[in-house]
Amino acid sequence: MSLIIVASAKGSPGASTTALAMASQWPRQSLLAELDPLGSDLLYRQVDESGMDLNPNKGMFSLALPARGVLTPDVVREHTQRLPGGLEVLVGLTKPEQGAGWSEHWDKLGRCLAAPGTTDIIADIGRYHPGAPTAALLRHASLVLLVSRAAPEDLAHVRSRAANVIAQTSSGGRGGAPVGVLVVAPLRQQAKASDMAATVLAQGSVPAQVAGVVAHDADAAERLTRLRSAGRIHKTQLMASVRHIVSNLGGRFGLGQNSAATLPAPATSMEGAAR
User: Fold this and answer.
1) Which of 42, 58, 90, 220 is most exposed, with the fewest beta carbons within 10 Å of its own?
2) How does pLDDT run across 32-74, given as a tens digit for each residue?
């Protein structure tokens, strides 16, 4: 498996929406893992494949007990649910207080999610900052993607976080995972946003690169994150931009044989669910 971590550095730039869109467009079997210690978004926005509310007790909450023992991909899968369209999800915690049960197990979870296998993990860890409990996950990542708005001050925060992420991924005696920045901006400003992000990163001599521009498409984001809303989303600017990003990730970041680089064009697994 490849463990792809998606995080934000400041505010709410759309990291959770981006992670959901990426997982839905991933060109091979994928699992969306909500690993934000502050709690789940999916619980309040999604339904399961039968149209019922997602089970808040099945996911990171129920996985906390077996995580005290031997944690394997098969054990993790016992605690997942499926969204309409078939996307497999590991639902996050219902409240921050539950994060205490994971305080000693983030490293074990990261090692498990990065184990060899046929499923790639798209992990949404929410807002990342130095000292965050999820920092232990970074050591096992194949790629870390930081999501940011295009404003200079937001990009400056991302530059600072990228430097820390690189240090974290390099700890433990292994080579650091590549770090990419996804900029959220209107597509008509794509070139400007991408150039600005590259300039800000270069000013800090941070070895991270711009991974692409996610289209700022509020209507599509609302329809994607709330599947009870009707409307086709696969042709929207948001989904088109994410498909383009996903198709380029493997070649750009060298994810290896278990990456999107070796696969055909992304599928549209959310299409049927969002009609």
Assistant:
1) 58
2) 999 999 889 999 889 999 999 999 999 999 999 999 999 999 9
Whether residue 245 contacts residue 212, with contact meaning beta carbons closer than 8 Å, is answered with yes
List Cβ neighbours of 36 (8 Å cut-off, separation of 6 or more). 16, 92, 93, 124, 125, 126, 127, 134
CA-wise closest residue to 169 among 153, 203, 193, 146: 146
Calculate helix-pair angle for 15-25, 218-225, nearest 10 degrees: 70
Q: Which position has the token pair 């990003």?
A: 245
Q: What is the CA radius of gyration of the chain?
A: 17
Bridge-partner residues for 122, per DSSP? 4, 32
Please spell the DSSP secondary structure of 185-211, one letter per residue: E-GGGHHHHHHHHHHHHHHTT---EEE
Supply the pTM of this predicted model: 0.90
In 3-state terms, what secondary structure has residue 183?
Answer: strand
